[in-house]
């Protein structure tokens, strides 16, 4: 059984997810880079390990319960526990589609990854998190999941609003709060992070500017939440402006 803290990051082979893996490993954690594609995930883990980091690949597709359960069993066999779970995997299913034309299938596809995938991963790894003296879950959300922010953007969302993505992240925020309350007694902190607008594959099809922040910038807040001390907060939503709460949910 490892004596280092152990983390797992879903969607960890590219973009902000990969940078979260790198930053956590740089801080001395053993990090499982979880990805659905074995070739891409294994290659990413090997590249990071070549830099002297303790990064290990595990195949995990958040939409496949069997693969998530197998990943949990692998982490249990290797490490015996989990200290940090970063639910980073996410998709946008409706680029280029006006709000009125978004279909239920597009919304369903977003929820499969952004909501149900988080529930699947959390359910599988909570038993291992309960073995940690300082367990943390970080859910990767978005400012577009804030109902308050969406109300302020009313006119600007008339045609380009991301109905599936925004509503799925709003649902994720609700999950975060419910999990935070339910798992508090187990000593498991559950928080949500928004990385800000970072140009990644997630928004490669956006018709609007995708931001000038780097993946390193985007990883700062989720990594900070992943490294919270035992007496750190739970049930908070934090963004890149500062480590203070960004705004009401």
Computed structural class? alpha/beta
CATH superfamily: NAD(P)-binding Rossmann-like Domain
How are strands sequenced across the largest beta sheet? Answer: 3-2-1-4-5-6-7
Give the count of helical stretches.
7
The number of domains is: 1
- Unreliable stretches, pLDDT < 50, 5 or more residues? 242-248
End-to-end separation in angstroms reads: 39 Å
CATH topology: Rossmann fold
Please state the overall shape, judged from the principal axes of the Cα atoms: globular
Query: What is the CATH level 1 assignment?
Result: Alpha Beta
Average residue-wise pLDDT: 90
Q: Please, could you describe this protein's structure?
A:
This protein is α/β, with parallel strands linked by helices and 249 residues long. It has a single domain (6-238), classed as Rossmann fold. Helices cover 42% and strands 13% of the residues. The chain contains seven helices and seven strands, in the order βαβαβαβαβααβαβ. Strands 3-2-1-4-5-6-7 form a seven-stranded parallel beta sheet, sandwiched between helices. The longest helix has 26 residues, at 104-129. It is globular. It starts with 5 loop residues before the first strand and ends in an 11-residue tail after the last strand. Residues 242-248 have low confidence and may be disordered.
